[in-house]
Automatic annotation (TrEMBL):
Pfam families membership: M20_dimer, Peptidase_M20
Record flagged with keyword Metal-binding: yes
Cofactor annotation comment: The Mn(2+) ion enhances activity.
One of the record's GO molecular function terms: metal ion binding
Cofactor annotation: Mn(2+)
Keywords noted in UniProt: Hydrolase, Manganese, Metal-binding
Origin superkingdom: Bacteria
Peptidase M20 dimerisation domain residues: 195-285
Protein's UniProt name: Amidohydrolase
GO biological-process terms attached to the record: diaminopimelate biosynthetic process
Species this chain originates from: Dyadobacter psychrotolerans
Lineage start: Bacteria, Pseudomonadati, Bacteroidota, Cytophagia, Cytophagales
Residues at which Mn(2+) binds: 107, 109, 143, 170, 369
Coiled-coil region: none
Length: 397
């Protein structure tokens, strides 16, 4: 096995300039969620150049390719990359700066895609040295509901062949380049959007007795809903309820007819996710009614919570330790953001890990979803080789 590891490291080093070129091409030519047409074309073209036969058009712009090793039927591992960019104007002054005004790879999906292209090349070159099948999944629209992953699954990406496990990575601007982060079990949150319309009867602020004040009702609702977190939630069960928009469009002496509120509900348990929503709706409607008004409580369901299968994650972490050295493996905290890789994790054993991309000495410290996000590109040589090794190790497990 260690001989194979040396081979992978040599191949990753040999092709690192090419993978960086892929990344820079994608970074310069970002496309928004569900619009990744040129990106998908580029991915398919590169996969064909490697000698693979990609299947295009999954969920619109998704691309899937298969690498068969020896005894291809024995076991399949799926490797996933997302391809979409964000509606952000890039502020970096770099040679590979976005050529599309207002669109930027600010979440590192260019890194995930180019890295998986590199991994594909390595695994294809080594296909006579491992048993099983690798399924490469390049998916659209991680950043936009309902999420490319959910559509890819509906269109059968987890069938024919069905992966025994799915593995994905994400850049981590808070982790130094050269290090990899893992967490077993619950890792990222489900994301549901809440849209409340609190209705009353507006009028002159000097005559409250003639009105049904939606501002006061909405205020009570906001305060009361937090008791879902403090009194109804099992304290061992992480959850967040935040309201970022509260519009009462009156003036000092005019009370409006209605107030709109928008917020987000995040947790790490699918049963509690639904229960919490039910309680919130009942509470908000009940408060409005008891005060003489009404509340329309709309929910837009987002991604489920992301669970890293414990045994799989332990195996992957062990393999990563072999490849990187124990000193380069770090523990991840819970992170209440959403990620559509979670859809795979609800269906098959899955592991989602973090690739360190920070380089403080070079000023590469900006967070994802910011106009100055960038990575230390030496992370790409690590990520291509590492994911190749993890896939082969998992096939052999
Ligand atoms: Zn993102
Ligand atoms: Zn992302």
């Amino acid at each position: 096995m260690s001989q194979l590891q040396e081979k992978i490291k040599a191949l990753a080093k040999e092709q690192s300039a090419q993978v960086i070129a892929h990344r820079r091409h994608l970074h310069s030519n970002p496309e928004l969620s569900f619009e990744e047409f040129k990106t998908a074309g580029y991915v398919a073209q590169q996969l064909r150049a490697i000698g693979l036969d990609p299947q295009e058009g999954f969920a619109g712009t998704g691309v899937v390719a298969i690498i068969e090793g020896r005894n291809a039927e024995s076991r399949t591992v799926g490797l996933r990359a997302d391809m979409d960019a964000l509606p952000i104007l890039e502020a970096n002054d770099v040679p590979y700066k976005s050529l599309v005004p207002g669109v930027m790879h600010a979440c590192g999906h260019d890194v995930h895609t180019s890295s998986l292209l590199g991994t594909a090349r390595i695994l294809h070159q080594l296909k006579d040295e491992f048993d099983g099948t690798i399924k490469l999944v390049f998916q659209p629209a991680e950043e936009k509901a309902p999420g490319g992953a959910s559509l890819m699954i509906k269109e059968g990406v987890l069938e024919n062949p069905r992966p025994a496990s799915m593995v994905g990575q994400h850049v981590a601007p808070n982790i130094p380049v050269g290090k990899i982060g893992f967490r077993e079990g619950m890792y990222m949150a489900s994301t549901d959007e809440l849209y409340l319309t609190v209705k009353g009867k507006g009028g002159h602020a000097a005559a409250p007795h003639q009105l049904v004040d939606p501002v006061l009702m909405a205020s009570h609702i906001i305060v009361a809903l937090q008791q879902i977190i403090s009194r109804n939630r099992n304290p061992a069960n992480p959850a967040v309820l935040s309201f970022g928009r509260f519009i009462a469009d009156g003036v000092t002496n005019v009370i409006p007819d209605e107030v709109t509120i928008q917020g987000t509900w995040r947790c790490m348990d699918e049963v509690w996710r639904a229960e919490g929503l039910g309680k919130m709706k009942k509470l908000a409607e009940g408060i409005a009614e008891s005060m003489g008004g009404s509340c329309v409580f709309d929910i837009v369901h987002g991604y489920p919570f992301l669970k890293n299968h414990p045994e799989l994650t332990r195996r992957i972490r062990t393999a990563a330790t072999q490849y990187m050295g124990a000193e380069n493996i770090v523990d991840l905290d819970l992170w209440m953001a959403g990620e559509d890789f979670a859809f795979y994790s609800q269906v098959v054993d899955s592991c989602f890990y973090r690739l360190g991309t920070r380089n403080e000495a070079r000023g590469i410290v900006s967070g994802v979803h910011t106009p100055t996000f960038d990575i230390d590109e030496s992370a790409l040589e690590i990520s291509t080789g590492l994911m190749s090794w993890l896939a082969i190790a998992e096939l052999a497990s």
